[in-house]
Amino acid sequence: MIQIIKKTNIDFIGKRKFSFLFSGLLLALGVAAFVMIFTGNANMGIDFVGGAMIMGNFDNQIKINELRTAFSEEGFGRIDIQSVLGEAIKPNSFIIKTIGESESLGDSLLTDVIVSRIKGRFPDNPFHIDSIDDIGGAVGKTLQQQARWAVLFALMGILSYIWIRFDFRFGVAATIATFHDVIVVLGIYSFMGQEISLLLVTALLTLAGYSLTDTVVVYDRIRENLKQFRKRGDFAGTINNSINEVLSRTIVTSSTTLLAVLSLLIFGGEVLREFSIALLLGVLVGTYSSVFVASPIIVEWEKRSPRRFK
Question: What is the predicted pLDDT for the residue at 273?
Answer without folding.
Answer: 83
